[in-house]
Specification:
The chain has about 90 residues and is an all-alpha fold. Helices cover about 85% and strands about 0% of the residues. The protein has 4 helices and no strands. Helix 1 packs antiparallel against helix 2 and helix 2 packs across helix 4. It is elongated and about 60 Å long. About 15% of the residues are buried. The mean pLDDT is about 90.
Length: about 90
C-alpha cells in the first residue's frame, strides 16, 4: 500500500492520539497535498519544523499500529489457548 494512503488511514483511525499541531500538519501535507514550504507558510513555522513534525507524527502512528496489532495477536493467542484448556 502507498505510504500516503497508509498515513491517511492511520490518521483517520488514530489521529486523535497525535498533538493538534501534528494533526494539522499531517492533514495539510497528506490530505491537502501541500508541500513542506506551503505547510510552513500556512502555519507560520519553518520548513524544518514541518518536516520534523511529519516524521514524529508518522513514527507515532506506526508505533501505535504495531502496538494494537501486538495486542490483538496476543489476545487471539490467549483466546485460542483458553479454548484448548477447556
Amino acid at each position: 500500500m502507498d505510504k500516503n494512503v497508509q498515513i491517511g488511514l492511520l490518521c483517520d483511525i488514530y489521529g486523535e492520539l497525535l498533538t493538534e499541531k501534528q494533526q494539522d500538519i499531517l492533514d495539510l501535507y497528506y490530505n491537502e497535498n501541500l508541500s513542506l514550504a506551503e505547510v510552513a507558510e500556512e502555519l507560520g513555522i519553518t520548513r524544518q519544523a514541518v518536516k520534523d513534525s511529519i516524521l514524529k507524527g508518522e513514527k507515532k502512528l506506526f508505533r501505535i499500529r504495531r502496538k494494537v496489532r501486538y495486542y490483538e495477536e496476543d489476545r487471539q493467542t490467549r483466546k485460542t489457548n483458553t479454548k484448548d484448556i477447556i
